[in-house]
Amino acid sequence: MANFKIFFFSSCILLLMFIIPSCLSYNVVSFGARGDGRTDSTAPFLRAWMSACSSTRPSNVYVPRGTYVIRPVTFTGPCRSRIEFRIDGTIVAPTDYNVIGGSSFWILFYKVSRLSVYGGTIDARGHSFWSCRRSGHSCPSGARSITFLWCNNVLLSGLKSLNSQIMNMAIDFSSHVRVEKVRIRAPSGSPNTDGIHVENSRDVTITDSIIQTGDDCISIGPGSMNMWIQKIGCGPGHGISIGSLANSLNEAGVQNITVANSVFTKTQNGVRVKSWARPSDGYARTLMFRNLVMRNVGYPILVDQNYCPDNNCPHQNSGVKVSEVTYKNIKGTSSTQEAIKLDCSKTNPCSGITLQDIKLSFVDYRLKRPALTYCKNAHGTHRGTVNPNSCF
């Protein structure tokens, strides 16, 4: 009887192999791409994409080993069936930063559903662009390296993004997106090189990734809902931030965000909620930060509702309502004496803040000063041991 079951199961697998059509593969080299690091392969990439996207069967765009130069490119949907974009090689931007710098996007997936992007490396070669910005000369606005705009049911796995001009990865107006096992790297002094930016999107998971940038490792903008972030190695960079919010009066809120089981190393901030001090009907609520390790991090726990990085401050009160925020099991060292800083709005005080099982010490090898908690217009409770002492 057991042998019959095994035979029946094996026969079913063989039958399915003949019944289910195989995935069609479209190799960019077959469409004229050259992996020599010099030839412009934008048009062959687009031709391969259009062929795959128009297929009625599940299809695959394949980028074999080699180095492929592409200009700004938009891979447009909707596609007729499930599509996979598999990269075994390296995709690089042209050496002249103006070629992609004048576009908001370098690699854009637009209105694509049931998409999987696997492996490989993309390198935007941002060094000369950053030099231009630091020099104060007239520079283009810069391009995001890879963006998913109005996309649904997306998996991004194993990609390495290097030297983005500005944001490395962006998810906007999209849903059911999973980002896993990515590696993002840009120098700590590179301006505005966020690792992953999410805005106006829901049901986004980011996990098992290492992010080293000159700005936020992950930034979460207005309209973001139902996000799960875990197992992130963040640093250098500015930490993981919700905001900046209050960019406009009529702004979508942020809610149901979890950041868990992650390590921050020498970042400018830890987990941060930031909003401009001006009117807004936005909000940030139901936020959970738990099981986090801080290693020599500035402001490991920070709510900043007087955000003003360029000294051109609104000098008003933030209209963003921050509520139901939990910080649980956060341990390590702070490079600022204020390890916990809750600087909330005078007209919209923070409420429902919970501090639980916090152990943060101040790294000051000269004076050995204790870590401090700063609270302004913040209301909440504490549970367990909280060090530095809770202000609630």
TrEMBL record:
Annotated SUPFAM superfamilies: Pectin lyase-like (SSF51126)
Protein name from the UniProt record: Polygalacturonase
Pfam families found in the cross-reference section: Glyco_hydro_28 (PF00295)
Signal peptide: 1-25
Family: Belongs to the glycosyl hydrolase 28 family.
Xref: InterPro entries: Glyco_hydro_28, PbH1, Pectin_lyas_fold, Pectin_lyase_fold/virulence
Domain of life according to the entry: Eukaryota
Active site: 238
Alphabetical keyword list: Cell wall, Cell wall biogenesis/degradation, Glycosidase, Hydrolase, Secreted, Signal
Compartments reported by the entry: Secreted, Cell wall
